[in-house]
Write a structure and sequence with these properties.
single chain; mainly alpha; Arc Repressor Mutant, subunit A; 8 helices; 74% helix
Length: 151
């Protein structure tokens, strides 16, 4: 849950808050769960909705946390001006931040969590075809954001 929320939100404190809120909601709503076999998809759906609420609440305000490893990598990076792994990662992070919550959630669930389209459809409560279409559009949005970053 933490990895998924961190990938969607990009902010450690918000991600931890989203996980805590999700766990509380899962505990509160557990008596209403009809199919125990659907627990994982059900809890992931609650997490994704919580991340969306957090992003809406956050609005346009963006605060970036820089971890100790990232700061050390910047300090140790060569000053040659050649694109390195850290620079590419920062470009990808900035492009990812431009995406809306729905696109972020789809990309995280599929590419980071390795979920199938059927699993994503179950988590988001949408048909598989819709999940496939939305994932395609999310990838295109990321490509456009990356193109804007390259300018």
């Amino acid at each position: 849950m933490t990895r998924t929320s961190m990938a969607i939100l990009g902010h450690e404190a918000d991600a931890r808050d989203a996980v805590a809120e999700t766990i509380a909601a899962v505990w509160r709503e557990l008596p209403r769960l009809r199919d125990v076999g659907a627990f994982e998809a059900w809890s992931q759906r609650i997490l994704v909705h919580q991340c969306r609420r957090t992003l809406r609440r956050r609005g346009r305000v963006r605060v970036r946390e820089v971890g100790v490893e990232a700061a050390a990598a910047v300090a140790a990076a060569p000053a040659s001006g050649q694109p390195d792994e850290l620079a590419r990662r920062q470009v990808l992070e900035r492009a990812f931040e431009r995406l809306d919550a729905d696109d972020r959630a789809l990309l995280v669930l599929h590419h980071l969590d390795g979920r199938s389209l059927a699993d994503i459809a179950a988590v988001l409560e949408i048909p598989v075809g819709t999940a496939k279409s939305r994932l395609h559009h999310a990838r295109q949005a990321l490509e456009r954001a990356l193109a804007r970053e390259d300018r």
